[in-house]
Write a structure and sequence with these properties.
With about 290 residues, the chain is of the alpha+beta class. It has two domains: about 50-150, Immunoglobulin-like (Sandwich), CATH 2.60.40; about 155-290, Recoverin, domain 1. The protein has ten helices and eight strands. The chain has a five-stranded mixed sheet with strand order 2-8-7-4-5. A three-stranded antiparallel sheet has the order 1-3-6, with no helix packed on it. Strand 7 (about 125-135) and strand 8 (about 140-150) form a beta hairpin. It is elongated and about 75 Å long. Bound molecules: calcium ion (4 copies). One calcium ion (CA) binds near residues 47 and 49.
Length: about 290
């Protein structure tokens, strides 16, 4: 039956050019030929769209007060209608996530979807499912999903490495790459210290507190502001971080990048006040909230 349909379709298509030229001759004398008929559809779109999840990279655990965003690309060989993203809570209730305009260039075949998910007070704790749907103009739909474990108010019950990883800070600061190079590391520290992104002005007390909280360095601002203009130029930050040797010391396997694990261990070592090799919530909670969960 299907073959018969195809034969008929082919026959019609072959017949069309001849018909066209005859029709054109017929309508030339007409002063108002009307809208030109649409060309016959030569194929049906039965191919599903494709989805690429840029992040979250992995199914993971995040604090409700941490950073988590969803970023997805989808494309279709004909024409994409839309990307839809839902977050399903542990009870199975689904809510649609609204897209945030990013200005990323799109065309009929490609679309991008970006939205921050966390921090969000409305999100409860528990295992959630992130559901991504891409639909084309012929209603072909592709669905991908991944699980995200959201921790509501459990910071004080977490071991340090889990707490650090759950902030989402590493992913957020590192453009969702799995290894952080020195440029991203310095920029990440700079954005912790310079909370006003528009200029170099800085809360000098915060720099001094950072010095004390990360290795007991007193009066760090005095050392860092080498040109004494009360601003932190990026070059001063780079020089200051080089002197502290954090990147060098924390890069345990010496591959010139920091993994999230290396970063957590490096920070943890500085925050283990009583040096018992365990970073307890009373040792890390205030600092984690202050520097990595602002
Ligand atoms: Ca398609
Ligand atoms: Ca300066
Ligand atoms: Ca490394
Ligand atoms: Ca300790």
């Amino acid at each position: 039956m299907k073959n018969l349909y195809l034969l008929v379709l082919c026959a019609c298509l072959l017949a069309f050019p001849a018909c066209d030229s005859e029709d054109e001759q017929d309508i030339i004398p007409n002063s108002n030929p009307g809208p030109k008929p649409l060309p016959p559809s030569t194929s049906v779109d039965s191919i599903d769209p494709q989805i690429e999840i840029l992040y979250p990279l992995l199914e993971g655990t995040y604090l409700r007060i941490g950073n988590l965003a969803v970023n997805v690309n989808a494309w279709d060989e004909k024409q994409l209608k839309e990307i839809r993203v839902f977050l399903e809570d542990p009870s199975g209730t689904r809510r649609k996530i609204n897209e945030v305009f990013t200005g990323i260039e799109e065309d009929p075949k490609h679309q991008n979807f970006f939205a921050p998910l966390l921090p969000n007070n409305a999100v409860t704790g528990g295992v959630h499912t992130l559901i991504i749907e891409a639909e084309d103009m012929q209603k072909n739909i592709t669905v991908k999903s991944l699980r995200v474990h959201i921790l509501a108010d459990k910071l004080s019950e977490l071991d340090f490495n889990t707490a650090f990883a759950s902030t989402g800070w590493f992913e957020w600061s590192n453009n969702y790459e799995t290894a952080m190079n020195i440029l991203f590391f310095n920029e990440a520290i700079y954005s912790i210290l310079n909370q006003n992104n528009w200029d170099y002005s800085i809360d000098t007390t915060l720099v001094n507190e950072f010095g004390l909280d990360f290795g007991g360095h007193s009066q760090l601002w005095k050392k860092w502001d080498t040109n004494k203009n009360d601003h932190l130029e990026y070059s001063e930050l780079e020089k200051g971080m080089q002197d502290l040797k954090f990147f060098e010391d924390w890069d345990k396997n010496k591959d010139n990048v920091l993994s999230e694990q290396e970063l957590a261990e490096g920070v943890g070592k500085l925050w283990d006040v009583n040096k018992d090799n365990v970073v307890t919530p009373d040792e890390y909670e205030r600092k984690l909230l202050k520097y990595f969960l602002p």
